[in-house]
Amino acid sequence: WFGNTTGPRQHLHQARVRSVEEGIPIIRAANNGVSAAFDAYGRPLGRIDLDIRGVIDVALPVALQAPPYAWLGDSIFFTIWLLGGVILGRVVRR
C-alpha cells in the first residue's frame, strides 16, 4: 500500500499517540505495514517491522483512568475559544 515510505511509520506513530491520548493499550495490526502493541503510556510492548510476517504475543496491561480529553473532547477548545471571544468583546467595547 505505502511501500517503504514514511506512511507506515506515521500510522504507527498515530496509534501510539491514540494510546496515550485515550489512556488505553492498543494493538495495531497491519497486513503490509508495521504492526505493534503499546501500553497506555505509549511504551512499545512488541513490534513487527514492515513486510515481515510474524506474531506478537503480549499481555495487555489494564487501561488507565480516562484522561480529560477522552470525555471532554474538543469542547475544551470550543470553551477556550468562546471565553477568548467574550474577553475580546469586553476589551473592544471599552
Quick one: how many beta strands? 3
Spatial strand order of the main sheet = 1-2-3
Number of domains: 2
Structural class computed from helices and strand pairing: alpha+beta
Q: How many helical elements?
A: 3
Tell me the span between the first and last alpha carbons.
58 Å
SSE string, helices as H and strands as E: HEEEHH
**Average predicted confidence as pLDDT:** 90
Helix fraction by DSSP (H/I, runs of at least 4): 40-55%
Low-pLDDT parts are none
Biggest beta sheet attributes: 3 strands, antiparallel
The gross shape turns out to be: elongated
* Cα-based radius of gyration, to the nearest Å: 19 Å
Q: Which strand-content bin applies to the residues?
A: 5-15%
Structure description:
It is a single chain. This protein is α+β, with helices and mostly antiparallel strands. The chain has two domains: 1-63, no CATH class; 64-94. The protein has three helices and three strands, in the order αβββαα. A three-stranded antiparallel β-sheet has the order 1-2-3, covered by helices on one side. The longest helix is centred in the C-terminal third of the chain and has 19 residues, at 75-93. The model has no long low-confidence stretch (mean pLDDT 90).
